[in-house]
Amino acid sequence: QAHVVESGGGFVQAGVSLRLSCEASGSTSSSLTMAWFQQAPANERDFVAAIKRYGGPTYYTDSVKSRFTISRDNAKNTAYLQMNSLKPEDTAVYYCAAGNPILSSIRNYVSGYRTWGQGTQVTVSS
Fold first, then answer.
1. Using DSSP, how many helices (H) and how many strands (E) does the chain show?
2. What is the DSSP string of 59-92?
3. Quick one: which of 75, 106, 108, 110 has the most CB atoms within 10 Å?
4. How far apart are CA 56 and CA 39, in angstroms?
């Protein structure tokens, strides 16, 4: 079974960039879809981005399409979320997830993924 650990969060000013990392362990990690979700206080966990196994298709929520990029390095068992032009509304805990969701569940945190990290806080000040 895969395990994932996030890193790279922090407190930044609006407009700057951050890169989050998600290191996966487990023999099947490169075959899994990797995804990022965000959760702000009192909100549900919202989909941000996903990348299919072996660096296949990528998916984004509309609010981040032009600013965030998801990628993966299977040799390092690591997925990344490059976040540019950060805005205060990006403030949230960011969770990495791994799984084998069907296409209709890629954006669904309840049905799409079995493995979750502990989350990394991203705070963007105005």
1. 0, 11
2. EE-GGGTTTEEEEEETTTTEEEEEE-S--GGG-E
3. 106
4. 25
